[in-house]
Design brief:
Helix content is about 65%, strand content about 5%. It is mainly alpha-helical. Helix 6 runs antiparallel to helix 16, helix 8 runs antiparallel to helix 17 and helix 10 packs across helix 20.
Length: about 700
Amino acid sequence: MRGGRVGEPAIERLRSSVVSKLTDVPKRILIGRALRSDRLGETLLPKRIALPVFASDPLSSVAYAPGEVLLVLSIAGVTAYHFSPWIAVAVVVLMFTVVASYRQNVHAYPSGGGDYEVANTNLGPKAGLTVASALLVDYVLTVAVSISSGIENLGSAIPFVVENKVLCAIGVIVLLTLMNLRGVKESGSLFAIPTYIFVAGVFTMIAWGAFRGLVLDDTMRAPTADYVIKPEHQGLAGFALVFLLLRAFSSGCAALTGVEAISNGVPAFRKPKSKNAATTLAMMGLLAVTMFCGIIGLAMASDVRMAENPAEDLVHNGVPLGPDYVQNPVISQVAEAVFGKGSFLFIVLAAATALVLFLAANTAYNGFPLLGSILAQDRYLPRQLHTRGDRLAFSNGIVLLAGAAGLLVWIYGADSTRLIQLYIVGVFVSFTLSQTGMVRHWNRHLATETDQAKRRHMVRSRAINAFGAFFTGLVLVVVLGTKFTHGAWVALLGMVIFYATMTAIRKHYDRVAEEIAAPEGPSDDSVRPSRIHSVVLISKIHRPTLRALAYAKLMRSDSLEALSVNVDPAETKALREEWERRGIDVPLKVLDSPYREITRPVIEYVKSLRRESPRDAVSVIIPEYVVGHWYEHLLHNQSALRLKGRLLFTPGIMVTSVPYQLQSSEAAKRRARRQQEWNAPGSVRRGPAQVRPKESSEHKS
């Protein structure tokens, strides 16, 4: 018996180790080994990796933005195509304006807040939250549009893909999510090769096409060159023509999506961060406009024909093409005209185009989690989004983005034509407010700056941002006017939902912070109760902490200490200073956690106390909020629940929750009282009482 008892702890440890490995091994296979916090610097990106990571969206948009321009112009027939070069020029001017404006942003605000930080600091919290809502919606749409467009490109070669678009699109989203959970640098290295192959392929196509057309005087013919477009509105003129051109321009502005991601991702760059980010912005802008203009030019030279409804509006030899016709993207038709169908370069570019459209979503996978982390730090989103995962990526934000994009793909059937109508609005809302905020930023600094050289630099920067604000604001009006009824209202509705949700979360956190703030003098929460305690788990000094400490002091246990886990050095330092300032007469022990875990260090420490004195019992006291609404459970007590779940299965450990009732808990009390008015305690679980017949009772007796 005695030998069996001695072996029990070993058996328990072995069982715990086996269970831990069974759950941990699949995770390690999928996302890799956990990284220590002090290795964060190793994940920073050089410019050659940052370009495909943060600029894959605007670079890949040249695969569909030229087609969107031609699709809109086709409404007026092929004669309207001669406006496409002028629309391309307008897009180029806008791109250079936005890039020049954002170069000022990354120098002035290198902390990674991007448009949100600029608007929040200079225009106020409401403007900042509007920008954040717009960016969050746009990041979700970036994933949905990029993946859906890539599936459609791939589907032209593989019928199974186009027959199962939604399933394949969601599968790609899951794959990208796993790759990004492995870390920013690792995913960036994986994505760099296909992005650079795509860029090289497009430049090769432009150069060879220009050489053939200008030097060799060859005639390049797209596969649709012989088709005739049946216009929906023949001979548009006046306001109708202007409206059509503005709508085509707003569709071409899809080439600008993702430009803001670099300003949001400055902290991910290697030092000097601002300089490297500004250089990457310039490289991205130059590459994107060159590819966009080159594809538009080659499309005109090779007589590409596109239509919004190709089955009826594209005619060959007087006969509509019919529903079986698959309309290939502009870039695919141009590549066929320049390289020849089935040639090696054509196949390489087609494969790289499909792949880079999938990888374009990576811009959102890096921008959304970073922005979510900043918003969580400002208490606009749940705190869990501010936490880095095992691979030092913001894992919760990555998973949230994947879920939202997957839902959108499912609702819209992975149809890029329908999804792209929702696009652009959020981008230009953030562009306009950000540049307006930068103008106020320079005005504020010019009011105090006396150095003439610095003043000249500020005046020049202000002029760039002022022109950017005017131009992007004008484009925003155009986009809203031309796309609202085509689906842009859905994006605006999404922004309103995000805004309202984040406002409600901030109000909740502010209300709770005010309610639990630790008073300077004595309070009712410091009155010592009469229960036992050994270890009090704390994260901050507030009312729940003081109540838990007071609960412990009259327990007369042999040892009493407060225990905290060092996840954020700045917060830990502030906790120590506050502890000493208040003169709390309980020793504070801080556990280091290089992998940012909370549960495991506490479990290991408590187990070590048990190993030192196996006959003693260890009591762990956890301060815990009591809330009244279901959604508040998502915002609080997550760490406490995980700890209790582990500690309750640890032999010799007693777990005590010290509840602190928030004001919202009154709602739960009222619900409970109403329930008791209708049912006796336990009646719901037992069911209604059954009245038995008298004779049955007598027979039993």
